[in-house]
Amino acid sequence: MSILNKKKTHSRLFLSAAFLLSSLLLVNSCAVNQCGVLQLQNVAKPGVAVSNNSCKGSDLALESIVNLQADASVRLVSTSEHHIICQNKSSFPLKIKVTSAASPWIRPEQYHIHCNDWLNGRLECNDARSNKIALICAVSEQENAIGLHKNATNTSPKMREPLPDDDDMELERLKVIEVLKNYLIPKIEQCRKDYPSDQVLTLAWTIKANGVVSDTAIIPENISDDKFVGCAVQIIEDWIFPPFQKEIPVSYEF
How many Å apart are CA 42 and CA 40, to the nearest integer? Predict the structure, then answer.
């Protein structure tokens, strides 16, 4: 083979290698920058900010970081319409990274917390110093997607008792009462202070086994949908309850 032919062969090999490398980099870049892996609901929600995201609007790409201030919660929706809710129960900010285009999609950055593995659609992280719960995340499937249904059927105070009275449900009843008393009622009272309203609001909802709220409904159905109502509903829907053995129907007057 002549020197000229060798140079041409080496040149072609170099160009082929360069083209293959650039293609791989382009594919990898597209994968990382793919928009819509998850969508952030309520983009302007207080205490929630997004960084390292190449997408616009509510779309999140892989490697995006969701920053949660203390006591803040966030709801994400996947392309398969699963709802992922995370709640910062610590006194310091936490970060959640979008790590995969498939379930469970996210993983907290564990600087000050220690997280267990996902179990039954639920993830819990503890404060590394106090060992108290710092972060809870849970996944709700499409058929259990959370929403406000003013015209929900088979939903009335008589048909939706606060909790069953049988002995097997006593522990679950106490868990719900504790959450209502210590967390939800004070938050909804703050809603009424922020958005003054004389409406008496009864909300009915179902707590799934992994603690996610679903099937939220207003009772009675003719109540006005003012800012107080919207604030109260959002607090209930964004809350993650303790896990239960089975679904728990709840109704409560605020």
Answer: 6
